[in-house]
Amino acid sequence: MRHTAIVPKGFIRYHVLESLGEKPMSGSEIMSEVERRTNGRWRPSPGSIYPLLSWLQDNGYVKELPVDQNGLKRYELTDKGKSLLEEQKTIRQKFRSEAKFLPPPFLGALWFKIPPEKMTKSMETMRRLMSAFFELGGTLEAKFSEEALEQACRVLNETAARLEEINQRLKQPNNE
Fold first, then answer.
1. At 11, is the pLDDT very low, low, confident or very high (cuts 50, 70, 90)?
2. If you classify domain 11-99 with CATH, what class do you get?
3. CB 123 within 8 A of CB 107
């Protein structure tokens, strides 16, 4: 069985680079920072952070700082790492402007102005939707069915149309 990660490829790398772009951090500080940025929805494991830090260091994107008085090993971006971060930011901005949408790994990143206590129901619904979507994708990959694919597309199109209707109603002048 093929493993499909719920976190998009490049998500961890981007957030590690972005975190280190703000200040030098240790692996555990980076994990906490990613957890904070995702509103507590996800905390990367040491098994994903430390190999990535090693890869970034081996490729000259980060450098290890001398261990501090607390015994923490912190990393900071090199000039090459800063360039990579800027390149990644440019790609994200270009995608957002051209596609008008950047699929976030977490709904909270998209709707950040909604109070967290009001997001619980939406987050659970989005989690269920994404889980069902990825699970169906894996099942269709293993056992393709034209009928199931057509049904899934019909449901997705109906859902998109209903969300577009809600959005249009909200944009009307009497809703401001």
1. confident
2. mainly alpha
3. yes
